[in-house]
Amino acid sequence: MSESTYEASSSLLASRASLRRNSAPSIDDASITFNSPVASPTPSPTTTAARTHQHRLNAAQEQRTYHDSCQRLISHISSTIGLCTDLNKGNKGKYPMYYPQSTQSTKKVTRSQTMDSSAILEAARHTTFQPNLFNTDLNILGLDLKMGHTSTDLNALETQSITNLLSDRLNTSLRYLEKLQSRVADTSSKVLVTGDLNSGKSTFVNALLKRDILPADQQPCTSIFCEVLDAMLNDGLEEVHAIPCVEKYNRLDPDTYHVIEMRHLYKVITEDFEQYKMLKIYANDARNSQESLLHNGVVDIALIDSPGLNTDSVKTTAVFARQEEIDVVVFVVSAENHFTLSGKEFLWNAANEKTHIFIVVNRFDSIKDKDRCKRLILEQIRQLSPATYADADDLVHFVSAGNVDLEPGSRKLDAPDFARLEQRLRAFVLENRTKSKLLPAKNYLVNLLLDINVLSLANKTKSTEDHARATQELEQDLPAYEHLLRIRDRMLRQVEKVAENTVSSIQRHANNKLNQAVENIGSAIHTIEYPGILLVWQYAQDIADSMCQKLLKDIKQEESHARREASDCLERIHEMGTEHLGQYPIMADVNKLCVKPKGLTITVEATDFFDLVLDDKLSGAALSLGAATMVGGRMLGFKDAVSSLWSVSNIIESPNVRRWVVPVVGIASVGFLVYVVSDMRHAVERKLVKKFKNAARETGYIEIQSHRIARESRKILRVEGWEIQNRIQKAIEDKEYKRDETQAFAESSRETAEFFASILEKSELLLEKVKMVVTDTKESFA
């Protein structure tokens, strides 16, 4: 196309206040063509005055709308900060948040192979971008455990981990909101020029400035953020301020930066001086305010040239982080490479706030099949940024920034495509600031409040369900708890009664049996063979031991009987326990019921071998004679008795009687001795049996042993009783602990539901207010 064509086109655009250079190419429904230059008729003075007046009215309305929307957004940002602070405080305190799982698949980008540019632009003209107010996915507060992929394993994380992750997200959002508030309140606008490595970002900035300021080369050059500002902000001086710490920078304080000469700028930018975090370049623009973007006479503009996204991970992260400070993003993409993965991730991340991205497809003149290039790139944009795709005619430009003439004082006109880009960028940044500066802030608030709504509604619903479930559980568990309280005392009394009855029975049985054993203890000596008079002492010892062993045997039989009775009683008691407490093992061991009993022993003495007591007949006769003597004495009188005794003594004193006394006494003594010796076996048996019985009776041995057996039985039965008591008490304590936990959980769930209901109510109200903020002057004018 010839230069005369550009000049004719320039005369057409001169009638428009917003255009300086040639008309830009437009994309119609059929194909991509450039508009033909057509000379417009010269407007009359009346028409010009009317248009000027209307333009001023529109500008005034735009300014009023901007300031009103700005103040509303600042107020809403403050309210959102308070809401996020309350939510974060609750999350870290009494109300840790539950994170709902995403219901949508991860974003994917596919290349279109069929749609042509006309169809894409036709769809864009009829597409209006609206935020998805019913999306259950989280945009800003979403948890991504893997870069670029939504995690599906969040349920596997602990509650505290989810709480910490959400708290980090909220803290990040709070910092973002504070910077967003400062950015909205700031009257200036920051334009970030970013893109992939070696896509021509610095060349594009130079083309906008019409000056060769930033170094550009076929190789990547920019390794540091370069912010270009109007030199009027630095008292008209062109300087480069190398800033070690961005937060401490103060133009009026030379200690916060180093001044670098313009001729050294290439070296500082390309060689990556790590001590500098940013360069502020104050540059003059000799063009008038209608032509210059920096020196526009409306607002202060900062053009920020960034390192390439895929330079390295540190610089890429830094570019991502700068978004919160940026009003307008100009994304430069190489027409040769299209959108790379790093570029796609940047646009996905930017979509949380900036729905409209100004996209520059650079080096378009080197493409042979331009229609195919446009089709593919527009399809990528459609998937990456639907709002940008919908306004592609204003926001997407295919240019070659390297062809712009940068010679000082040159009168050569720019190519129509670049002139159109300048006009649309100027309109986007300056004339439609409500859209370029306020809409991103509004969109971020909408997305954040939608996320808060989703989280609040999910947590309110879950807490309400938890409270209902806990309340129902308490109601269902109450009868079982009351049943345990009722059976506790009743069962213990029943167990005690059964055990005491069994112990009493064991004691009575033992007492009766052992008394019988003592009465029949003489049977123990029948098995002992009499060894003769010479071993009669050993015989006596054997009799004593035999009776002792016989009684011990009977005691052991009673112990066995007690074990059987105790075992039966344990079974009954255990059944009583399992009826209410479920199955559990018997803890008592009946084999430990009795220890080895101490036997009853008697000592064999010499008197045990002689039994001088007459037998029953002699004893009876002696008793009868004695009784008769007493009766006769009473009957005859005392004198007669004395006379009789005197007569007997006289007889004994006679010589005949004296002669027979000694033999008779000797024979009687021998007979008595023979009797004693012959009766010694029976005498010792009688004496030891009697002695053993007396010992058992006098020492209370039977009562002691029966009491001991009963006591040991009671111990065994009490073990099972204590086990039941402990199990009942533990069951009651477990019930009470569980009920206390459930009650506390129900109360906590109720408070949590009320807290998130309050957050939800506030966020919904605030969301409605934010959505009412005007960010499109066309709608307000309509």
- Rg from Cα: 59 Å
Structural class estimated from helices and strands: alpha/beta
CATH superfamily name of the domain at 187-414? P-loop containing nucleotide triphosphate hydrolases
Treating each run of at least 4 consecutive H or I residues as one helix, how many helices? 20
Could you tell me the strand content as a percent range?
A: 5-15%
> Count of DSSP E strands?
11
Low-confidence stretches: 1-41, 103-135, 147-152, 614-623, 625-636
Question: Terminal Cα separation, in Å?
Answer: 39 Å
Query: What's the story with the biggest beta sheet?
Result: 9 strands, mixed
Approximate helicity band: 55-70%
CATH architecture of the domain at 187-414: 3-Layer(aba) Sandwich
Q: In which order are the strands of the major sheet placed?
A: 6-5-7-4-8-3-9-10-11
What is the C-level CATH assignment of the domain at 187-414? Answer: Alpha Beta
What name does the CATH topology of the domain at 187-414 carry? Rossmann fold
Overall body shape: rod-shaped
Mean pLDDT: 77
Molecular structure report:
This protein has about 775 residues and is of the alpha/beta class. It has 20 helices and 11 strands. The chain has helices at about 5-15, 45-90, 115-125, 160-185, 200-210, 265-270, 315-320, 340-350, 370-385, 385-390, 390-395, 415-430, 435-520, 535-580, 615-635, 640-650, 655-680, 680-700, 700-770, 775-780; strands spanning about 25, 30-35, 190-195, 225-230, 240-245, 260, 280-285, 300-305, 330-335, 360, 395-400. A 9-stranded mixed beta sheet has the order 6-5-7-4-8-3-9-10-11. A hairpin with a 4-residue loop joins β1 (about 25) and β2. α2 (about 45-90) packs antiparallel against α19 (about 700-770), α13 (about 435-520) packs antiparallel against α19 (about 700-770) and α14 (about 535-580) packs parallel to α18. It is rod-shaped and about 200 Å long. Mean pLDDT is about 75; it is low at about 1-40, about 105-135, about 145-150, about 615-625 and about 625-635. This is Dynamin-type G domain-containing protein. It is a multi-pass membrane protein. InterPro entries: Dynamin_N (IPR045063), G_DYNAMIN_dom (IPR030381), Mitofusin_fam (IPR027094), P-loop_NTPase (IPR027417). GO terms for molecular function: GTP binding; GTPase activity.
